[in-house]
Amino acid sequence: MTRVLSCIQPTGDVHLGNYLGALRNWVSGQHDAEVFHGIVDLHALTVTEAPEVLGKATLSLAAMLFAVGLDPDVATVFVQSHVTEHSQLGWMMECTVSYGELSRMTQFKDKSAKREAEFISAGLFTYPALQAADILLYDTDEVPVGDDQRQHIEITRDIAIRFNHRFGDTFVLPKAVTPKSGARVMDLQDPTSKMSKSATTDSGLISLLDEPAAVLKKFKRAVTDSDSEVRYDRAEKPGVSNLLEILAACTGETAEALATRYSQYGPLKTDAGEAVVELLRPIQARYHELMTDRGELQSLLRKGAGKARVVAAATLARAQANAGLLPA
Ligand code: TRP
Questions:
Q1: Minimal CA–CA distance to 175: which of 132, 199, 200, 144?
Q2: Which domain CATH number covers 144?
Q3: Does 328 fall in a domain?
Q4: Is the pLDDT of residue 47 over 90?
Q5: In terms of Cα–Cα distance, which of 316, 315, 290, 307 is closest to 38?
Q6: Ligand 1 centre from 35 Cα, in Å?
Q7: Ligand 1 pocket check for 22: Cβ under 6 Å
Q8: Residue 138 lies inside a defined structural domain of this protein
Q9: In this structure, what is the dihedral angle of CA atoms 186, 191, 197, 203, given to the nearest 10 degrees?
Q10: Whether 175 and 268 share a structural domain
């Protein structure tokens, strides 16, 4: 079976755009491939300093991944730092990538420029080496990523090729694949921009943890336009089309079909808001249940780390032996 790895950093709440655009497909796709989902807390450490923030975000993201429907008996959901092989292979990857290659990474250039006077850790610079370890440890065939991550998959392939060339066949060469994309959810206040946690205000952003009243209010205040025709037309009517697309993603109908049923914006906003409240209801119930039962959540993560470690340990041992590290 094809082996697929996706990793997500524990920074900030998961929002409706993440869910309808990606997570929902992770859930529906979990039986079609052998899937690994890493919560990459070591990567978050490159920019997050507050221990209570990182720990809480890691736990919360784990609860959310199970709450949306990743099945711990099917998918392998684990926390990166629980599988120590990531750090161990990460070092070997740092010794396989060059300073010049890392210097050319656009994400490093962007992130370090944004940090201006702030502390720029060496980890931010060597980040792609750890990411290469994440991927290569699992003999990963496919890594579903957006365009911003393609360069990181390319460098992972370059590292794997170099290592295999130096030390003999060790790693499977992964390839970047375009994730099967779900709905494209836009900001409710700025419907020409994707819903994103880096938006300036959160009035256009629906967190999966928003209370029903907050969700309804944000939909009521969603930006539309000054005429009053309900029509699915992304270019001319981005706000209305976004509401239709969200409602469509919740009900399984098409945005075009839904458009014919509305003649005013008010009822469309109400229905979209209510549909999202209903969509989130069981997810939130399961999330809160897991968050109040830390023992259960921790045991699910232990189970995931155990499954991940079986694969990761074998790959690490192979890499260490091939590179000439003396067995302990
Ligand atoms: N760099 C990725 C991001 O910022 C996160 C990540 C870390 C990742 N390790 C990975 C993604 C391995 C895919 C595979 O989104």
A1: 144
A2: 3.40.50.620
A3: no
A4: no
A5: 307
A6: 15
A7: no
A8: yes
A9: -120
A10: no
CATH of the domain at 276: 1.10.240.10
Calpha distance 285→49 (Å, rounded): 30
Global pTM value = 0.93
Concatenated DSSP letters of 37-75? EEE-HHHHTTT---HHHHHHHHHHHHHHHHHTT--TTTS
State the total domains in the chain.
Answer: 2
For the question of residue 303 being annotated catalytic, the response is no
CA distance 55 to 118: 22
Identify the active-site residue in 197, 220, 237, 269.
197
- Residue 233 tokens read as 């037309």
pLDDT digit string (tens) for 247-283? Answer: 999 999 999 999 999 999 999 999 999 999 999 999 9
Range of 259's domain? Answer: 212-288
The residue to which tokens 């450490």 are assigned? 45
Ligand 1 pocket mutation pick from 8, 18, 23, 40 by most atoms within 8 angstroms of CB: 40
Structure tokens at 200: 């300036």
Active-site annotation holds for 56? no
| CB of 43 shorter than 6 A to ligand 1 | yes
